[in-house]
Amino acid sequence: MDWRAVENWLARDDRCVLPLGSTEQHAGLSLAVDSILSERVAAEAAAPLGVPVFPVLAYGITPAFAAYPGTVSLRAETYLAILRDVLEGLYDQGFRRILLCNGHGGNTPGAAAALEFTGRHPDARTRWHDWWRAPRTQEAVQTTDPVASHASWMENFPWTRIPDAPPPPEQPKPMTDLDRLRTLSPVAVREQLGDGNFGGLYQRPDQEMLRIWQVAVAETRSLLEDGWA
């Protein structure tokens, strides 16, 4: 879209989507997994409705993975300041219903910033949507394979793989102790995780992944259509 298209949209509607991602290790998958998935699920969900999807905010809060090269983490106060500025900018443009389509668990403090934003602007509405753990999508994941975690099969889509990368291990990885992981320094996190997968299979058949993806797109679209009460 150019600015004219946005102006025309705002003349008849006030919805938009802001995807939120991260740049962090995902074992043998792209460092941009969280950004790729949040932006893509938002774009596919919004396309039939014509709702604008803004470029993904590709850096998030991920200090635990700082010992993995390529991981870039924002301080929590920096992330929240950026998110507040973006929301205020969207509001100033005329957007009043903003879906924040989040792809990274570490960004969760942003949900409070979204609530503060609507507190400052009672005529605005925001929805914080962790797309991968929304009810219907998570049900589809659990039905497929209950052992699903960070950098495992559940994030391994055709569009998150690195071309010509070595094939992933065929055997599932034992689940790491997540409670212990949360107490460790970045260097110790890398020592415990090794390649970065928390546990489970590294890849499942694409037909299974596409079924889950279709559920995620439909669930995200339903929020755009009906989630503004």
From TrEMBL:
Pfam families: Creatininase. The keyword Membrane does not apply. Keywords: Hydrolase, Metal-binding, Zinc. Its cofactor is Zn(2+). Belongs to the creatininase superfamily. This is Creatininase family protein. It comes from Teichococcus vastitatis. The lineage of its organism: Bacteria, Pseudomonadati, Pseudomonadota, Alphaproteobacteria, Acetobacterales.
